[in-house]
Amino acid sequence: MNPKLEEAIAGLRCVNKPVKQIAKTLGVKKDAIEKIIKEWIMDTDPYINKLVGERKVNNIPDTNEMKLLVKMAPDDLLGDKRILDYIAKKRNDHHDRFMDCIRYKIKIMLENKK
Prior knowledge:
With 114 residues, this protein is an all-alpha fold. It has helices spanning 3-13, 19-26, 30-52, 63-69, 74-77, 81-90, 97-113.
């Protein structure tokens, strides 16, 4: 995987951009972007399932709040109850843009811990 490309894709997903627009912006095929996002899903699903398990969702942030929250560092992000509620609610939605952003941050965090 190209780390610079992954970072660029994640940056655009973190500001709620669709795959089609990202492909056009970066000059990359849509299929290639979807493949990268699928890998993020496979890499992070076990961690996410352990993280939120049977968590009861109290309150999920709206789009504007999420745009601000996803700017946090991964450790701070995963310490925020609103983000954990969002993850618990949306973890199985593999088309959610903010989940892609969160998954990328988790992936980087996990790689740095190796």
